[in-house]
Amino acid sequence: MGGVSNERKVSLASGRNVVEGLRSLGRYEVVPVVLDAERIGSLPPGTARAFIALHGGWGENGGVQAELDRLGIPYTGPGAAASRIAMDKAKTKEVLERNSVNTPAWALAAPDAPSCPLPLPAVVKPPCDGSSVGISKVSTAEEWAAARDIAVAAQGGTGDVLVEEYIPGREFTVPVLDGKAWSPIEIVTKSGWYGYDEKYKSDETKYPFVGDDERAAGGEGLADALCSAALAAYRALGCRGIVRVDFRVSPEGRPYVLELNTSPGFTSHSLVPKAGMRGGATFGEVCEAVLSCAACDRGGAS
To answer: Which residue, 250, 260, 271, is CA-closest to 170?
Structure first.
């Protein structure tokens, strides 16, 4: 847990929860490993498995995965190659499109681009960041420069930004563990925008499961469509272990894959634990289910 990305604070919260959850089962010796650099350094002797609670940066771009491969220690989440693709939203979209998985139209814009390359409204975000850091919705031409600059700043002041077609409608997420989709969850915010504060700070954001609430209507048809698309995206990127697939669903009911999160959060507001606990499992048992799928590429990642 920890790391040096913009998501360090969230990672520490996830990591602490996972430690407490696994310890509560009484079956594991759990040792927190807090990283302050993009390297592991050393692990406790006899480490059998690693639960990756790093978010963003080296924790999701294949770095820590490749290092654990080198050490021969099984870890949670996808391997290094899939992680590298999923961390880069532009590369992810290229793979999704090649595999006929529906995703919003997109373009890359230079850090000094004078205007939005897509029709408005559009969403502007860093291509390689998460936790809704640096993301803005642009509704008018006058909002473009500020949104572009926010995204550029979030990725260290350099590099292109991702511009994505804004899909009106509703927002959903589907966790996938070991090739099995869990129940889709709708994300309902008071403002209609799911940003950093709505994700981690607000107690007004609601997360009804599809079919459990009038605002998560759609029933089995919508749930099946979301799960099918989530599994197609999961397979397209060559994922394994735990992944969360995020969606927008148009007013016509068509799902659009936004991105795949290969190290989803385990905070008090996180959605993977909510989905895993739906059937009566405890938080610790959800962590154990994720841990049970730990694996590594013995020969190293390509």
So the answer is: 250
For 247-271, how does the pLDDT look when each residue is reduced to its tens digit (9 = 90+)?
999 999 999 999 999 999 999 889 9
Token representation of residue 35: 């990283």
Q: Has this prediction a pTM greater than 0.85?
A: yes
Cα 4 versus chain centre, distance: 17
Domains delineated in the chain: 8-84 (3.40.50.20), 106-165 (3.30.1490.20), 168-283 (3.30.470.20)
Q: Amino acid identity of 132?
A: S
The residues facing 255 across adjacent strands are: 249
Check: CB of residue 147 under 8 Å from CB of residue 162.
Answer: no
Catalytic residues: 7, 131, 200, 244, 246, 259, 261, 265
Sign for the pseudo-dihedral over CA of 197, 200, 203, 208: positive
Instruction: Please name the residues in contact with 88: beta carbons below 8 A apart, sequence gap of 6 or more.
Output: 61, 127, 128
**The pairing of beta strand 106-109 with beta strand 161-165:** antiparallel
Contact in structure between 7 and 56 (CB atoms under 8 Å): yes
Contact yes or no for 210/184 (Cβ under 8 A): yes
